[in-house]
């Protein structure tokens, strides 16, 4: 006879509280931490007390199933205490600012876990190298999901991040296959829906913009499903034009199909089934008879001593890829602006405000002359820490051009762009990963731009200049930030 065991560790002591109405565990494929809930009875005994943050372990049939931590205790007048516990994924909801260059999703996730001292287990190599990713004030979990989705779109491989009894694993769903069959004999009831209303696209349009405003469009579509369903378009910007068409092809292959969702209630329980598991299904669903694998999007395990059932939400895209797909690539380069004459006045920095370095530099305005039709750029950023030069990069600049807000990425080196007169530049500055002392110093540093100074001349003999800022931290640490702004042709 199977037996469940729930333990709580408090102040170094491990005990098993009395459990009412069984134990419930929820696992989802994406976006949520594993959750265990149970109800106990409040005890006045000192050896039965516990607090938020205490570790909780659950075993079933002598097998480890869940390890997490108490997050919520909810009480009623009968002294019943409803307890909610989450696994390590919960700590990835912490927000921070990150910048990664030429890293795989598996490497990025390892770094995120290390940042929050989370234990890891098996981490599958995700293969695809992401050129760069920079996120400000975003949760580590959302970043992990974004890079896994980028890998899915690029390679067609789906990976799942989950907590396996205290260790975070990253696995390809192809390696998460269950032998538990869902059929009329093993499921109490089911509901089924097929749809083209969500996660179905038969027209993929991706676009890329470079510094010269060259717009390149990568398109993949299926005339047959467009004729049948109408146009269902997926539209997105790509940062790397060399992978644009491959990504369009991959997305069309993934999404040019009906989505199917099957909800199962009261199935025979299997503790190895979690979000991301591929589980075999053999059922007559009405419009088809399935004998195939479906993906577990969510599972709820219900334990009551020797009785274990599970409720499942399953999805699938079974149709073969369309054979009539069309691929196109188009692009255009707008007319170049006329080179400015030698008599044109220089632009000038007119106003800035206090700001946090290592984050977003705001309220920086550039006033361009009315007769200037060229470009104005951010060349580079230099940080001086206690007299030592250290690299820092402008990750992105937001500005106005032709009345429209635009954002340019500046990961390293120089970039120039045309701006409207009086344009506001909103710059996000980061320090280099190999200069950790700079990052440490910059966090919380408040700087002010103290003025501008000339810095040579351009080909039209017009002066270039930079805006200089200086730290006003209370510590004896001085950081000079030089935003080198220059004329370009």
Distance between the termini: 81 Å
Q: What's the total number of strands? A: 32
Taking Cα atoms only, what radius of gyration do you get, to the nearest Å? 28 Å
User: Which assembly state applies to the chains in this document?
Assistant: single chain
Mean pLDDT, as a whole number? 75
Tell me what the structure shows.
With 489 residues, the protein is mostly beta strands. Among the domains are: 4-86, Roll (Phage tail proteins - horseshoe like beta roll fold), CATH 2.30.300.10; 91-173, Baseplate protein-like domains (Phage tail protein beta-alpha-beta fold, 3-Layer(bab) Sandwich), CATH 3.55.50.10; 348-488, no CATH class. Helix content is 11%, strand content 51%. It is built from five helices and 32 strands. The strands form five sheets. Strands 1, 2, 3, 4, 5, 6, 7, 13, 17, 18, 19 and 20 form a twelve-stranded antiparallel β-sheet that branches. Strands 22, 23, 24, 25, 26, 27, 28, 29, 30, 31 and 32 form an eleven-stranded antiparallel β-sheet that branches. A hairpin with a 2-residue loop joins strand 5 (55-60) and strand 6. Helix 1 runs antiparallel to helix 2. The longest helix has 16 residues, at 140-155. Residues 332-376, 378-395, 429-453 and 458-489 have low confidence and may be disordered.
């Amino acid at each position: 006879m199977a037996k469940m065991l729930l333990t709580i560790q408090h102040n170094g002591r491990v005990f098993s509280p009395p459990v009412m109405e069984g134990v419930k565990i929820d696992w989802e494929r994406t976006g949520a931490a594993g959750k265990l809930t149970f109800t106990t009875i409040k005890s006045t005994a000192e050896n039965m007390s516990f607090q938020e943050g205490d570790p909780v372990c659950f075993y079933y049939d002598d097998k480890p199933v869940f390890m997490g931590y108490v997050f919520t205790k909810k009480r009623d007048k009968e002294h019943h205490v409803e307890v909610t516990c989450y696994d390590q994924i919960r700590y990835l909801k912490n927000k921070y600012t990150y910048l990664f260059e030429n890293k795989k999703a598996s490497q990025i996730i390892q770094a995120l876990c290390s940042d929050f001292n989370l234990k890891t287990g098996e981490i599958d190599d995700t293969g695809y190298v992401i050129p760069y990713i920079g996120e400000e004030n975003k949760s580590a979990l959302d970043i992990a999901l974004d890079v896994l989705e980028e890998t899915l779109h690029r390679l067609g491989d789906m990976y799942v991040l989950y907590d396996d009894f205290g260790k975070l694993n990253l696995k390809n769903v192809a390696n998460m296959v269950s032998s538990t069959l869902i059929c009329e004999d093993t499921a109490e009831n089911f509901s089924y829906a097929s749809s083209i209303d969500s996660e179905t696209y038969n027209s993929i349009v991706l676009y890329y913009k470079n510094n010269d405003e060259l717009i390149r469009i990568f398109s993949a579509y299926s005339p047959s499903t467009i004729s049948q369903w109408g146009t269902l378009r997926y539209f997105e910007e790509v940062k790397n034009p060399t992978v644009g068409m491959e990504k369009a092809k991959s997305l069309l292959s993934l999404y040019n199909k009906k989505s199917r969702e099957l909800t199962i209630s009261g199935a025979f329980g299997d503790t190895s089934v979690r979000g991301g598991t591929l589980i075999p299904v053999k059922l007559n669903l009405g419009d088809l008879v399935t004998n195939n694998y479906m993906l577990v999007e969510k599972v709820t395990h219900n334990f009551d001593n020797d009785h274990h059932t599970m409720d499942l939400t399953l999805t699938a895209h079974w149709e073969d890829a369309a054979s009539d797909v069309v691929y196109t690539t188009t692009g255009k380069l707008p007319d170049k602006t006329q080179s400015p004459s030698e008599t044109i006045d220089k632009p000038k920095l007119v106003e800035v405000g206090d700001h946090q370095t290592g984050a977003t530099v705001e309220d920086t305005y550039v006033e361009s002359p009315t007769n200037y039709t060229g470009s104005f750029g951010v060349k580079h950023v230099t940080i001086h820490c206690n007299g030592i030069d250290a690299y820092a990069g402008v990750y992105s600049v937001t500005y106005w051009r032709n009345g429209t807000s635009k954002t340019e990425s500046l990961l390293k080196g120089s970039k120039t762009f045309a701006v409207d007169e009086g344009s506001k530049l909103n710059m996000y500055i980061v320090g280099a990963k190999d200069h950790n002392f700079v990052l440490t110093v910059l966090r919380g540093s408040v700087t002010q731009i103290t003025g501008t100074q000339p810095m040579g001349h351009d080909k039209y003999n017009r002066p270039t200049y930079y805006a200089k800022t200086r730290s006003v931290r209370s510590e004896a640490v001085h950081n000079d930030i030089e935003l080198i702004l220059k004329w370009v042709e």
